[in-house]
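cron nightly-structures :: item 1 of 1
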Amino acid sequence: MGRGKKYDQAVASFDKDATHSWESAIGLIKGFPQKKYDQTVHITMNLGIDGRQADQILRGTVMLPHGTGKDLRVLVVTQGPLAQVAEEAGADIVGGAELVAKIESGWLDFDLVIASPDMMGQVGKLGRVLGPRGLMPNPKTGTVTRDIEKAVSEAKAGRVEYRADSKSGNNAQAPIGKMSFDEKALIENARAFADAILRAKPASAKGQFVRKCIVSAAMGPGVKIDRALLAA
C-alpha cells in the first residue's frame, strides 16, 4: 500500500541520499506538500551505542526552547501539601491512591505521569500498564521528584523525554514542534535536542557516536542532517 500522492511528491522533490544543514533540512520539510492538519515534526538520531549494555543506555529529558506545540495532559500522583503545589503549578489531574486504582482499571486519559517519591510504592504496581506506553515515572527523567512545581512547569513548557536502548534500535527521538512553527523555532528546537544527546554520550561508547540524524514531518519523508554538524 502506497503512502499517498503528497508523500510521493515530497520524495520526488529532493535527493533523499543527500545530507543537509539544519536550515536546509527544515526548509525542505516546510516546503513539502502539506496535509490538512498540523503535523508534528520529529527528530531521530541513530547512535553508535550498544543499547544492551546498562552503561550505554541513554535516558533523559530536554527542554525545547519553543515547546512542542502540544498541550500535555499532566497527571500527578502525590499526597499532602504537594497536591496543592501540583494544582497550583498547572497539573491537569492530581490525586493519590484513588488515581492508582483508576489507572489499574484501564483509565489512561493523560500524556505524562509525575509522582512524588513517597507514592512510588503504589505507583510501582502500574509498571505493566504504564511501562509499555512510556509513561512510568522515573527519577532519570525528573518524573519522580519532590520538586513537583518544577516538574509540572517544565512539562507544560516543552520538556521532552528520550530513551535510546536496544528496544528503540539505539535511536534517540522526540517531537520538536509542529509544521505551523516558523523555521527558526524548529531549527532551534532541533539543535537543542541534538546538543543534549551529544552531551549525554556514554564514556564507554566507541567509534562514531551519531550514525544518522533525520528530521521529518509525521507523514513525510525523512531528511538527513550532515553528520559534520553532530561531532561529539
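cron nightly-structures :: done
The chain is about 30% helix and 20% strand.
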